[in-house]
Specification:
By secondary structure, the protein is mainly β. It contains no helices and 19 strands. The strands form 2 sheets. A 16-stranded antiparallel barrel has the order 1-2-4-5-6-7-8-9-10-11-12-15-16-17-18-19. The chain has a two-stranded antiparallel sheet with strand order 13-14.
């Protein structure tokens, strides 16, 4: 079951079934592969349906991922002077992704991906809708030194992603996104873990409204659910203590800081956005240490409740 709450789309309920499996029984080196589906409906009539799979093959030399999602998202953005008001909007969306990664040296993977995005956005105060159909090609480098895929107790993972939406693929507004992230994990004792994450993203060219970076929109940063802070660039830093006080139960405490640039509201550029929170964990699968849990976090004038499938990072 899936239960969540935030101040923008309200109480959410749904289901998130998943399966862990080994595609080749004789391959004892590759981590378990995963496939899942997701369905959600909220009290403000937001809904999503999606499916996802990530497969590890050939002693983890190959990593394949695919995802599909469709839904209707009732959200908002904030416009400062002279309006000084929240502006509600609805986005009907469809997303498709296919990614292939190949180990090229030790723990370094090179990947390519294709993404198809469809957005139709209607703003309450405007008579017309904005339609965007985007087809993108991406390159990514992934240096994965984690001690475990689903619950790392040591090591690190760094990713560099370049996603281009050129006019050669029929995009009306060509642009690109460059993203970098690094996660570090350290064991404190035989059971607990300290984790830290740095993320940075930048638009190259004019991003469409739905391509902008939103604080709280993905993994960065819990505690922001209203979509007030968004822009062409974003930087976020966060840390987390993972306390495993029982074989299958644990708790987390976390905090972080983020900021955006190239914002819709110039006064938000460079504004420091702190967040703090805590949560509980239950180990759903003891073989892979895959956790589920519930977090609550507070940001600057905002807060949110989060159902977690796996860890935040």
């Amino acid at each position: 079951p899936y239960v969540n709450y935030d101040r923008s789309i309200g109480l959410q309920g749904g289901a998130l079934p998943m399966v862990l499996f080994n595609p080749v029984a004789s391959d004892t080196i590759s981590p378990s592969s995963i496939a899942s589906a997701f369905g959600m409906y909220s009290t403000n009539d937001t809904w999503f349906v999606s499916a996802f799979a990530k497969v590890h093959l050939a002693e983890d030399d190959w990593r394949l991922a695919t995802a599909w999602a469709t839904g209707s998202y009732n959200f908002q953005f904030y416009l400062e002077s002279p309006i000084d008001s929240w502006i509600p909007y609805n986005t009907e969306m469809s997303v498709g992704l296919l990614q292939v990664q190949r180990r090229i040296w030790q723990k370094l993977y090179l990947g390519v991906n294709y993404v198809h995005l469809e957005f139709e956005t209607a703003v309450d105060s405007l008579p017309a809708t904005q339609e965007d159909v985007l087809d993108g090609l991406g390159l990514n480098l992934d240096l994965d030194r984690r001690e475990g895929v689903y619950y790392p107790r040591g090591g690190s993972q760094s990713k560099l992603r370049y996603s281009a939406y050129p006019d050669a693929l029929g995009n009306e507004d060509p642009n690109a996104r460059l993203e970098f992230e690094t996660n570090v994990y350290r064991s404190v004792n035989e059971s607990d873990v300290i984790a830290a994450r740095l993320y940075g993203g930048a638009g190259l060219g004019d991003l469409t409204f739905n391509q902008q970076f939103v604080v709280g929109g993905r993994q960065d940063l819990r505690g922001y659910t209203q979509g007030e802070y968004r822009g062409e660039q974003m930087v976020a830093l966060q840390g987390e203590y993972r306390w495993n006080f029982h074989d299958r139960f644990g708790a987390v405490g976390f905090g972080g800081l983020a900021t955006v640039f190239g914002s819709l509201n110039e006064e938000d550029d460079g504004t420091m956005l702190p967040a703090i929170g805590t949560g509980i964990r239950f180990t759903a699968d003891t073989e892979t240490n895959l956790n589920v849990g519930l977090d609550i976090a507070w940001g600057r004038g905002d807060w949110g409740l989060y159902f977690k499938f796996g860890e935040a990072f």
